[in-house]
Amino acid sequence: MSNIPFDKILGEIYTQIKQTPNEGNVASYIPELATIPRDKFGMAVVTNDDEVFFIGDSLEKFSIQSISKVLSLAYANSLIGPELWKRVGIEPSGNPFNSFMQLEYEKGIPRNPFINAGALVVADVLLSHLKNPEEDFIQFIRAISKNNSIDYNLHVAKSEHAVGYRNAALVNILKQYNNLNNDVHRVLEFYFKFCSIEMTCVELAQTFTAFSKRDQAFKYGKVTLTTSQVKRINAIMQTCGFYDEAGNFAYLVGLPGKSGVGGGIAAIQPNHYSVAVWSPPLNKKGNSYLGMKALEWLTDKTELSIF
Amino acid sequence: MSNIPFDKILGEIYTQIKQTPNEGNVASYIPELATIPRDKFGMAVVTNDDEVFFIGDSLEKFSIQSISKVLSLAYANSLIGPELWKRVGIEPSGNPFNSFMQLEYEKGIPRNPFINAGALVVADVLLSHLKNPEEDFIQFIRAISKNNSIDYNLHVAKSEHAVGYRNAALVNILKQYNNLNNDVHRVLEFYFKFCSIEMTCVELAQTFTAFSKRDQAFKYGKVTLTTSQVKRINAIMQTCGFYDEAGNFAYLVGLPGKSGVGGGIAAIQPNHYSVAVWSPPLNKKGNSYLGMKALEWLTDKTELSIF
Amino acid sequence: MSNIPFDKILGEIYTQIKQTPNEGNVASYIPELATIPRDKFGMAVVTNDDEVFFIGDSLEKFSIQSISKVLSLAYANSLIGPELWKRVGIEPSGNPFNSFMQLEYEKGIPRNPFINAGALVVADVLLSHLKNPEEDFIQFIRAISKNNSIDYNLHVAKSEHAVGYRNAALVNILKQYNNLNNDVHRVLEFYFKFCSIEMTCVELAQTFTAFSKRDQAFKYGKVTLTTSQVKRINAIMQTCGFYDEAGNFAYLVGLPGKSGVGGGIAAIQPNHYSVAVWSPPLNKKGNSYLGMKALEWLTDKTELSIF
Amino acid sequence: MSNIPFDKILGEIYTQIKQTPNEGNVASYIPELATIPRDKFGMAVVTNDDEVFFIGDSLEKFSIQSISKVLSLAYANSLIGPELWKRVGIEPSGNPFNSFMQLEYEKGIPRNPFINAGALVVADVLLSHLKNPEEDFIQFIRAISKNNSIDYNLHVAKSEHAVGYRNAALVNILKQYNNLNNDVHRVLEFYFKFCSIEMTCVELAQTFTAFSKRDQAFKYGKVTLTTSQVKRINAIMQTCGFYDEAGNFAYLVGLPGKSGVGGGIAAIQPNHYSVAVWSPPLNKKGNSYLGMKALEWLTDKTELSIF
Fold this sequence. Notes:
- Chain A is an alpha+beta fold.
- Chain A has helices at residues 6-18, 31-34, 68-80, 100-105, 116-129, 133-145, 154-162, 165-176, 184-195, 201-212, 227-240, 246-252, 289-302, and strands spanning 42-47, 52-56, 62-63, 198-199, 218-220, 223-225, 257-259, 264-269, 273-278.
- The two termini of chain A are 23 Å apart.
- At the A-B interface, helix 11 and helix 12 of A face helix 11 and helix 12 of B.
C-alpha cells in the first residue's frame, strides 16, 4: 500500500485547478471534440497495489486519441520485437508533431512511434500480423483494463478520417518510401479507429498500470512483454511522449507519459502508480493546459519523480 | 550503504568490454585527442554513501569536453535562475549536435543548453555575471569534487580554438540574433577552456554525485541549487544529454547522463549513485562506443534504471 | 524566313548525339515509360515563319509529362489572370522537384506552377472553372497545334495514378492548407491525365510556337493571353522550368523551356523559333541527358540565346 | 544608334516615380547607409553605341554593395575558368539570401556566386590568385568604366565589418567545410571592401555595358572573358541576381540584373543597352522598391525584354 496520501493530494490539486484560468484551447479540427465543454476536469491515480483515487469528471468517457499510440506500440513490440526499430526510430522529433520535412529528410523512417507517421507504421505492422486487427486490439485493451465496455467511437473515427488530410499525406509519403505494406486507405482507417477509443480517467489510469508495474508480468491476452521491454516503452514515453514539448514535460513533471488532443494525459511513476488526467483545452504545443499543471503539482506534492 | 555488488559488476563489465570489438573511432579533429590510445577503458561508481568503486584506467586524466556543459549549466542556473530559459530552450534537438539550421529556424534561441550553441549562451551568461570566470568556474568544480588538482588543459583549449570554425560560426549567429552579450572571441575562449577540463573517471563520478544526491543540499562554494533545480537538470540530461542519440540512450541505458567527444560519459541513478566511464572511440553519433555498452550492461546487471 | 540553316545544324547535332555515350537513365517508376527504347532521339524546330525542320525519331509520339504544365498554366492564366499568383508563387524552387519540406515551410503555397504541387493547384483552378475539364483542355492543345490527333493516353494516366504516392501526399498537404477547392482524388485524376498527353517532337515544337510568337495574338479556342502574359510565362519557364537545374539550363542553353520525365524538352527563342527534343534517358536532376546536350549545341551553333 | 527614345522614356518614368508612394525601407543595419535620404532617385541608360541617358540623382555616388558580386565573379571566372563551379553552384537559392541552412545542407558549396556565401568563396579565389587583390580589383573596375575616380569607401567597409556577424558565421562554415583557402578574417576584410565600392548611376550603367556588349571583346586590363562566358554570367544574373525574388524580377522586368542593399540595381538588355537605377528604400525581399518599378516600366515602355 502506498504511503502517499493521494486522496488529499488530488483534493488539493482539484481546488487549485478550479482557481486557475485555463489558457488552453479545445482542439477544433475534429467536430466531435470541438463540442466538449472546456471546463471538464478529471484526475485518477491507480497505485501498484491497485488502490484507486479519483476526483472531478473521472468517470466520464473521453477520446484518448494519441494516448492509444502507447498501446499500439506495446502490441506491435510484442508481435515483432526489435524488428520494429528497422521501420521507426526512437529519437525525439524536435519538431512539430506532423512534420513532413522530417519524414522526407529521413527517407520515410519516422523518428519515433508516437509522432503520427510512426504510429501509422505501427498500425501497418498490426494490420500485417493480426487476423482481426480491430477486434484483437480492443480485446488487448479490455484485457489490460479489465473492462469490457471499452470500445471505439466509430463516429469520431469516421469524422477524423474525413478531414485527415495531414495523415493522408503522411501515409502516402510512407508508401512512397516503401515503409508501408498495406493499402494506404486501410492503414488510415485502422489508425483513426484506435485514436477514437474512449475511456474514463479511472479506466485510463487502470490501463497504464501495465507500464507502472514494470517488474510484474506484462501478459494481457495474446500480448506479452518482458520487464526490459516495458522499461524501454517507458523510456520512449519520456523522450517522445509530448510532441515537441517532451523536454518541458520531463523538466516540469518528470514522469514518462503520453498526451492526446482530446485533452487526456496518462503518466506513470515506475513501480509506484499510474495517473490519468483530463482537461480538453490544449496549450500551443497540443498538450492539455491544465493537465500539465495538475501533473506538475502532483510530482511537487508527492516529492517523487523519476529524476 | 548500497546493497548492489558494484565491485563484482564492474569486474564483469570489464571482462566483457575486453572481449568486445570496438567499432568506434577516436575523434580526430582535435590533435590532442587524436593521439589518445583507443584501448583505454576506465569506469568508476560513487554511491550516495560515498563508497567508491572503479576498474581499468580509472585514475588516468582525460578531457571531459562536453560533459562540462552540465557543470556550466548548473552554475548559470544558480546565478540567474529561470531567466536562463528565455535565452536557451530545454527540448531535445532531434538533429546533429552542431546544427546551424535549427539555430536559424529558431531565431538564435538554441534548443537546449547541451548543444554547442546552447553551451555558448551559458558561457556568455557566466562571463556576464562572474568577476573571474575561469577562476570561479574551476573553483566550483574543485568544490564539488573535493579535489584541488582539477584544472583546464590550456594546450587543448588553444588547439580546439584554432580549428573551431563550427563554434565560431555558431557564436556569430547568436550574436547576429542578439543572444550574446559579450564579445564573440571572449565567449569562444572561455567555452573552449571549460571543455578542456581534465578528470579521471573517479573524479568525474565524484563530481556527478552532486546530481545523484538530489535530495541533499547542492551547495558548493558560491553555487547553490534547490532539489527541484537539480531534478530538472537531471531531466535535461535525460532528454538532451546525448546529441541526437538521447532517445537511444534512454532506451538502452535509462539513466540521465552526458557524454563528451573525449570518450567520457557521466550518468546518475538519482538517489543511488553516479557513474563515469571512459573509452575514447566514438560511435557515429559522437558518443563513446564502449561507454554506451558498459552503461547498458550496468543497468541490466543492477536491474535498476529510472524507468 | 529565318536565315539560320536549321537543317544543317540539326544534321550536325544528330551526328554528334549518335557519337555521345548516354549517361542518363530512363525513368522507371512508370511501367509504360520504362519500356521505351533508350536510344530514341528526335529533334524538331518550328520557326516563327512556320518553317519546320526535324531529324531522327521526330514523328514518333512520346509522353510529354510535365511539359504539359506550361499549357495548363497558360489556360489557368487565361481564366483567372493574376488571381492565380495568390495560390502559387513564381520563384525557382531551389530544391528537388517534389519537396514536401518547401510546401510545409511555405504553408501550402507552392513556389511555382511547374513543381508538382504548383501544377496540382493549377489543375484545381481548371477543374473549378471548366465545364468539361478534360475535353476543354485537349481542345485547347489541339487548337494550338492545329492537330486533332493529339490526345491523352489513359493507360499511362491510370498507371501513374496507381503508384503516384508522392503526388497523393502533395495534394493532401495542399488540401490541409486550404489551397485546393476540389476533391483530392478528382484533382489527381485530372493532373495525371494531362501529364499523359502524347505528342511527336514536331507536334510539340509546333505547340510551343504559341510562346515563341510572343508578339502575335495568343488566341486558341477559348484561351487568350496578352503579349505581356506570354512573356511572363516565358520568364517562368526560364527560372523554373528545369526543377533544381533551372540555373544550369539557363547557363548552358540560355533559352526558356520545360522538360518532362518522358525525356522531352520544349524550348523557345522568343521571336525566332521553338524547338522540341526527345531522348528518354534522364540525368540525375530528372532532365533528358542528351536533350540538354542537343539544346546546348543548338544555341552554340546558332550563336543565339536570350542572354 | 538605338532607335528607342530613352530620353523621353526616362522622363516619363521619373514623373511616375515622383508620384508613387515609396513603400520600401532603407537598410538600417549599416549606419552609413541608414543616413541616406530616402527620396534619392537616379536612373541611367548606356546603349551599346555608347549613348548615355540619365535623369534625377544620377551623378551622385552611392554604395553599390552586392552589385559588385557580378564584377568579382567576372574577375574570378577570368582567372580560373570553370574550376570555379567546383566550389560554388549556379542554381537559384530559393531561400533568403543569407541562409545557413542551405550551406549546411549542401556541405559548404554555396548555391550561386551572388548569395553572400558564394561571393565569399569568389573573394577567396581572388585572394589566392591576385598579388594585390584590392588594387587589382579596383583597377579592373576602373578599366571597364573608364573612370579612375571609382574607389572603395573604407569607412563603410570597416563599419559593415564591425557588425557583419552573419558573414562571419558564413565564412566560418565555409572554412569548416574546407571551401576556403585563406584566413577567415582576410576573406571578410576583402569582401567588405568590394561591397563598399561607390559609383553614380551613370558610372554603374557604363560599367555594365561590359555585359550588354556580349558580342564584343570583354578585355579590361588583365581580365578577359569569351562571349560565351559573358552570356553565362548574364544567365546567372537572370536566375540568381535578386535573392529570393529572382523569379519575380524575371516575371516583372525580364532582364538579367543584380541589386544591392544600397538601393542600386544594374541590368542589361543584351546587345542593346545597360541600365542602372538607384533608390535607397528596399522592399521586403531586399531589393530597391522603386528601382524594381522603374525597371518594370522601362521594359513596358521599350516593349523589349529578353523573353
